[in-house]
Amino acid sequence: MRGLDATVTGRLLGPVLALLLALLAGCGLAAYTPTPLPGNGATAAPTSAPPTSAPTTAPTRCDNALASYDPSDTEGAAVQRIQKRGRVIAGVSADTYLLGSRNPFTGRIEGFDIDMVKALAKAILGDENAYELRVITAAQRIPSLENRSVDVVARNMTITCDRWTQIGFSSEYYRAGQKILVRRGSKATTLADLKGQRVCAPNGTSSMTNLMKLQPEAIAVGADNHTGCLALFQNGDVDAITGDDTVLAGLAAQDPYAVVPDQKAFTAEPYGLGFNSRDVDLIRFANAMLAQMRTDGEWKQIYDRWLADALGAAPAPPKAVYGRTA
């Protein structure tokens, strides 16, 4: 199944998505948990993975979570497997506006993370449209890699030491930070202000972990994804949403009553492309691709296409850290 290019700009999408979500909330779907939709080569990934043996390449300790494998354009076994198949299979979001979301006009999934998948497909196969997208929740990211239902996860995934014990990561391709989203007119501007309030974050994410750790006096409310959080927010069932600034910017663009207050991020969230821990050659290949994107301007072009309007002028791309050994 071939990937499809975006044809509708984010400026048009925001109001339409806001209207669609408002209609959902008006229908009383407070507990709405979206089901992944097929199309654009997208299929729902399994909700759970069979047990797998412990990864043989995971480090026993983690001095620097951002350290990945040195870049290389050598076409090893994992790269050759994709070349033989003829497409990259990627686990993505279909409801994270600006990063990976379904365009309601075209049905295509598009965003910053999707452009990363396109770049990987072009690097491996010479064709940026040689990819298949499989829609997964945040909680399905690691199982989907462990059971090899996808080659790569491009779904605003934070690199952590704990996750390195289960999967492998590329070098950092974006640096986000966790913030809060509240109703317009709210006096809450920081996480500390949310004591006793109902705050939503997706289950199985570092956003939920950070919420419970950094503000244990808030009432944590889980959802399958941030769209589920937005539905709860619009229906009045939660007072705030917490997540990466990239994600919250997309939510605010969909709802005129939602705002991300001027605030300092209370965490650093370095995004990496996720891979099966045994596919070290594929990780090295992806790192070579990302290294080129940082220097030839492609990274900035992708940022400007999706994030500049919401987050401002492009920063310098995150610097890569290498040196990890299998």
UniProtKB/TrEMBL annotation:
Keyword Cell membrane recorded: no
Signal sequence segment: none
Family of the protein in this entry: Belongs to the bacterial solute-binding protein 3 family.
Protein origin, superkingdom: Bacteria
Annotated keywords: Signal, Transport
Xref: InterPro entries: Bact_solute-bind_prot3 (IPR051455), SBP_3_CS (IPR018313), Solute-binding_3/MltF_N (IPR001638)
Name recorded for this polypeptide: Glutamate ABC transporter substrate-binding protein
Pfam families associated with the record: SBP_bac_3
Keyword Signal attached: yes
Ranges for domain Solute-binding protein family 3/N-terminal: 87-310
